[in-house]
Write a structure and sequence with these properties.
Blueprint lengths: L9 H27 L13 H4 L11 H17 L9 H10 L9 H12 L6 H17 L13 H11 L7 E3 L6 H11 L5 H8 L2 E5 L2 H13 L7 E3 L16 E6 L9 H4 L11 H11 L1 E12 H5 L3 H13 L1 E7 L13 E7 L6 E6 L21 H8 L4 E3 L2 E8 H6 L19 H30 L7
Parallel strand pairs: 1-2, 1-4, 2-3, 4-5, 6-8
Antiparallel strand pairs: 5-7, 6-7, 8-10, 9-10
Helix pairs in contact: 1-5, 1-10, 3-5, 4-10, 7-8, 12-14
Length: 479
């Protein structure tokens, strides 16, 4: 692909691979479906099915060069983008159209395209062992995205998603949701953790139907669908949509889930019309805040959630953040906050993040905070030294036997009552990193962090001034 003039950069190379892999994986699935159901009819017209145009049987008849390019650009893509789909079309068929809606063929050299197709076609995806092995390889491809420009936003390190899935303890019969599912990392960690509990065919059926995801961007949506098919999910309930474009007050019990695992997009600001879908007190312009509200409205009674949020959510005391945290603590049980070390998401972002664990069993009475320190011998995580599940071992050990810990006079683990948190005006930036070296962030992140801190400080000043003027009986609105 690097020799093809039409492709620029790793993200485009992976995107190019993605639609071909999807068709190859889908073709293997369709063979299974045809075997199980003799009445099965593909949604893809015969000439566009992978085995009818991509497979090179070495007879010299396989399309290549300009013929192949012409077929892909002028027959394959228009056909798949134009498939007729209605609300009655089964998900396992409609995903073909949704996957190709905004997909692109970037390659301009038909001979190179043929070579790439031949490599992909060599995969024996109907062989269980090879299919399983390729699932791990696909995971590596997704990981490569983290350093492929802005595409890194779609990938949460596997160590983090695995830790969260372990702590949430999936049970057969429960459904998990991720409303900004990216390439499906949380869903695969959930499936991996849940698979140990399968004992009967009925369990297997519940396992197969236990995931639900929404992804706004086309490219990660395509990667996620392929990821789920590779993990044996024949009917991936993954939707190409924007979770923030529905009034949260319209959600009913049918829209709720037993478990929510998420890393909401943060740092982005949403347009005013998006904020109209939220009650006025919760209508923040910060994306992560809005997702927190969606999560609270879509978590079932007695349900459990684990959500990654940036430091700005913890220390923020502007009106919307305080309202969201008040709702969280008064209607949900925020039992644990794990402070993660910096550079977990490097090189995509340097912003420090946290995992909030809560359930819908009643209001919060106390919240434990635990600081996960950088492992011995690490100054930063990086592409060559990424975070691994073993680095969460201290947090896992502490989880089962909770106790307050102080190191060099600074709290590493501590329990706060909801009253103590309210007194701090819901600033839950607790058990943070003491001797943190001054980190030089990219200008955009530095400005974002500064703006968040300034807004929080301004809100604190306004609140204190209001209390003082109230005590003194001064009306500062008078001339």
């Amino acid at each position: 692909m690097r020799n093809d003039a039409g492709i620029n950069g790793d993200a485009q190379r992976i995107e190019q691979m993605a639609w071909m892999l999807f068709l190859k994986v889908y073709d293997a699935k369709e063979k299974d479906w045809e075997f199980d159901d003799e009445d099965y009819v593909s949604i893809i017209p015969e000439e566009c099915r992978w085995s009818n145009w991509a497979v090179d049987d070495r007879s010299g008849n396989a399309m290549t060069g300009d013929n192949l390019l012409n077929f892909v650009n002028n027959t394959l893509f228009p056909t798949l983008k134009g498939l007729s789909v209605s609300k009655d079309t089964p998900i396992k068929k409609s995903i073909v159209k949704t996957t190709f809606e905004d997909a692109n063929n970037y390659m301009k050299d038909g001979v190179l395209l043929r070579q790439v197709i031949n490599v992909i076609d060599e995969l024996e995806l109907d062989d269980y062992e090879e299919s399983h092995a390729f699932g791990d390889i696909y995971e590596t491809i997704l990981k490569e995205l983290q350093s492929a420009g802005s595409s890194g936003e779609f990938y949460t390190p596997r160590a983090v998603t695995d830790f969260m899935a372990k702590m949430i303890k999936p049970q057969i019969g429960e459904n998990v949701a991720d409303f900004a599912c990216g390439t499906g990392g949380f869903l695969t960690s959930w499936l991996k953790e849940l698979s140990a509990h399968i004992e009967t065919t009925e369990d297997q059926e519940k396992y197969d139907n236990s995931i639900y995801g929404i992804e706004k961007k086309q490219f990660p949506y395509m990667l996620c669908i392929t990821n789920m098919l590779l993990h044996g999910i024949d009917v991936p309930k993954i939707y190409h949509d924007n979770s923030l474009l529905r009034d949260v007050l319209d959600y009913t019990e049918e829209d709720q889930f037993e478990v929510i695992l998420m890393n909401p997009p943060y740092g982005g600001n949403e347009k005013n019309e998006v904020k109209n879908h939220f009650p006025s007190d919760l209508a923040s312009s910060e994306t992560a805040d809005l997702f927190m509200s969606v999560i609270m409205y879509r978590l079932k009674k007695n349900g459990r959630a684990a959500v990654i949020l940036p430091d700005g959510f913890l220390f923020g005391t502007d009106n919307a953040k305080v309202a969201i945290k008040k709702k969280l603590l008064s209607e949900f049980n925020l039992h644990t906050v794990i402070r993660m070390p910096h550079s977990v998401f490097a090189p995509y972002t340097s912003i420090t993040t946290n995992i909030l664990f809560f359930d819908r069993t009643g209001p919060t009475t106390e919240t434990w905070f635990y600081r996960l320190d950088m492992p011995e011998g690490y100054k930063n995580f990086s592409k060559t030294k990424p975070m691994e599940l073993k680095h969460f071992a201290p947090a896992m050990d502490w989880w089962e036997n909770r106790e307050e810990i102080a190191v060099d006079g600074f709290d590493k683990a501590k329990k706060y009552t909801v009253e103590e948190i309210a007194e701090k005006n819901y600033n839950i930036d607790l058990c943070g990193y003491p001797h943190e070296e001054e980190e030089i962030l990219p200008p955009k992140e530095l400005i974002q962090q500064y703006q968040a801190k300034r807004a929080s400080l301004n809100a604190d000043i306004d609140r204190i001034l209001a209390q003082i003027t109230d005590i003194l009986g001064i009306d500062i609105t008078e001339e």
